[in-house]
Amino acid sequence: MADLVGLLVRFARTLRAEGVPVGPGDVLTYCASVAALDPTDLADLYWGGRIALVTRHEDVATYDRVFEDFFLGTGVDPGELLELLLRAEPDAETTLETAAPDPGPDERPDEETTLGLMASDVETLSTRAFAECTEDELEALRRIMSRVRLRPPLRRSRRTRPSRRGRRPDLRATVRRSLRTHGELVALRYRRRRVRPRPLVLILDISGSMADYSRALLQFAHSAQRGARFRVEVFCFGTRLTYLTPSLRTRSPDEALARAADLVVDWEGGTRIGHAIDEFVRRWGRRGMARGGIVVICSDGLDRGDPELLENAMQKLARLCHRVVWTNPHVVAGGRGVPRTVGMLVAEPYVDELLSGRDLASLDELAALLPELG
Amino acid sequence: MTRPGSVAELTDALRATGYLADRGLATAVHVALALDRPVLLEGEVGVGKTELAKALAQVLGRRLIRLQCHEGIDAAQALYEWDHARQLMHIRALQETGTSSDEAVDALFGPRFLQERPLLAAVRAGAGAVLLVDEIDRADDEFEAFLLELLSDFQVTIPEVGTIVAEEPPLVLLTSNRTRELHDALKRRCLYHWIGYPSADREVAIVRSRRPEVSEALAASVVAAVHRLRAMDLAKPPGVAETIDWARTLEFLGDDLDAGTADLTLGAVVKDHDDEELVRTRLDELTARG
Q1: Does an H or E element contain A192, and which?
Q2: Global ipTM
Q3: Residues of A in Cβ contact (< 8 Å) with B95
């Protein structure tokens, strides 16, 4: 038995080393689960660990891999294991996309950045580090951005609080008070609905045509998320949508941004706004993240994808959330001079507020607008 | 059955009630019973998360207590509430008769005026209950924290009455549709199981076991069509519940599944307008044989 526990603990540690969050309490649960099962049965061994050590659907694939590596190494029949894994995960999804052929070194996105108007079709799977931003730049950005405080508008929640006036009588409090006066109802007490901030979702374009702007945006996203007393969710997209909220959740901005950069695979690749918004609506928005919330999209609207897809996605998004705000770096402050890109033309009818996203000052404008969106 | 002896025994017992659980799910429940831990079930909509609780209550011979979560749910709705209207009447009655003994006042906060809500009911029933906390993701953070506290020691303190402790905790199932990520602390308390879509064979078996009147051939063709729908990248792919509904609808109409009948009955399985439009253009492909 002692050997088995040692083995299980080693397995849990391996799993932790692979990035699955496993605490000591989980290891205890794991050992207890396996003890309640039959550890010589591979299926029991597999499931005993999976129910105790994995708490997120996303971690199942890692668990499967580590399980295979770990217990294969101890002389388990591969055929049997394969069968087991097949049974275990019938809904494994493939998320890998095939990249279009490489355009060759001459047409690197850098060139497009200087042209500024062409979005690339090709996913350049390069992880670009924030180190490229000079230290002074970062410092200056951080100073300015930590000033900008985002306050989303409030909505009335279903929760109530005691109040002297209101619509709904608070029987509990009324009865309590009436006890003081020997059961005589002297004054009715009421409850009224509480107010809560609406959730805020930032969807940031980091594609080639937005490269200069995107670093600033991520800084902004980080400072917006830190110290926020409401829900801020951050996504970024180029050719595909990446969920950034968890990786921005550290105190140090450098670390947070480095982590985010690690995650973003299509840094300065092409733009497929429609695809990204559509994915956001399907995978996140419909599940509740965008419901009743404020969605801020930062992009220049240079879309290389199908305009119809973008229109559909924007329509769904507009129906789902409370307000859509679009900030565009090519818009001059005051909302005039909107560039006539196809993406912008298609998306505009579904945008409630179009703002300039030219410089840091325009972020102040956004911050000032947010509480007004009621 | 009070407590199944093995995973296989539990699977068989569940099958007898018409619920086909796969190995992982049965293992999770078996371990949960052995360790007195809650099970957190996540998965796509309509894969039988809520049904499992019903089947388990039946198998274990326990009472099913269901708490449906919603935004703004609070302790008064989930745990207990005093019957204030009755209390008021009682106070007035005491005044009329001029009684003011301690007993009469104590009675005011006694069991007669206490309205039991699902969580209190579950604590009182203890091992005699299966507690289903349905769609926990719809409640808010505050409620999640409150629930976490309750799940860790299964005791409820009512200031006027005292502390009520469950001698043996009930079997607790929590379900989530992942509209938001739950707190890690709550997840840590629970055994976690993801319920995915079943394989085609299993799904046919599920349809047949839930609706024996549906013929094997019809069930197979409906399941094949539903699997094609799931591959179509719909905004809301159909769950097992929809498969069963669709098979029942067709059986009720006495039809086989072809492009024509699929067109007429599509509302049983596709519940989103955009999806519906997309599917209608591909009906032949959907109902193709083989």
Answers
A1: strand A190-197
A2: 0.71
A3: 182-183
